[in-house]
Amino acid sequence: MNKKMLFIPTLILVVMLGLAACSAGSLSLNDTNWKLVSYGPVDSQVLAATGVETSLKFGADGKVGGNLGCNSFGGEFTLKGDQVTFGLLNSTLMACPDPQMSQESAAFAVLSGTVKVSLAGDTLTILDASGKNELVFARQ
């Protein structure tokens, strides 16, 4: 009977530790702000344009917005595991010189549909659905 009395609390403890470990590894982007560091093909990243303020903000309400070179934008996102699905992103329609416009175009091409995200410390990487292009951000 003593073995049974020890088994149940031990089992409960093991299950609780397992659940805590699973939830500790989950990714959350809610209420985070990011600055673009680089973009483009995975094997030949281009540094973000100097002197250009960029931002990517994920809200706890499922809203995303910011500015990736020229135009302000906003829309919705959902996060499941290591995948983010972006809804239609609306943006202003200003024209800007390069490299701002090419940077923004490359960024919007990645922020489309369902993409893979990874978070390592203060670095957020977003990989497009093809796995060929990515955006790298630093936490703000």
| C-alpha-based Rg, rounded | 20 Å
Q: What is the number of helices?
A: 2
> Which CATH top level class fits?
Mainly Beta
Low-confidence regions: 7-24
The spatial strand order of the largest sheet comes to: 1-3-4-5-6-8-9-10
Order of helices and strands: HEEEEEEEHEEE
Describe this structure in words.
- This protein is α+β, with helices and mostly antiparallel strands and 140 residues long.
- It has one domain (28-139): Lipocalin (Beta Barrel), CATH 2.40.128.270.
- Helices cover 24% and strands 40% of the residues.
- It has two helices and ten strands, in the order αβββββββαβββ.
- Strands 1-3-4-5-6-8-9-10 form an eight-stranded antiparallel beta barrel.
- It starts with a helix and ends with a strand.
- The model is unreliable at 7-24 (pLDDT under 50).
Itemize the secondary structure elements and their pairings.
Layout (H helix, E strand, L loop, with lengths): L1 H23 L7 E10 L4 E2 L7 E4 L4 E5 L4 E9 L2 E4 L3 E2 L8 H11 L2 E8 L2 E5 L5 E7 L1
Antiparallel strand pairs: 1-2, 1-3, 1-10, 3-4, 4-5, 5-6, 5-7, 6-8, 8-9, 9-10
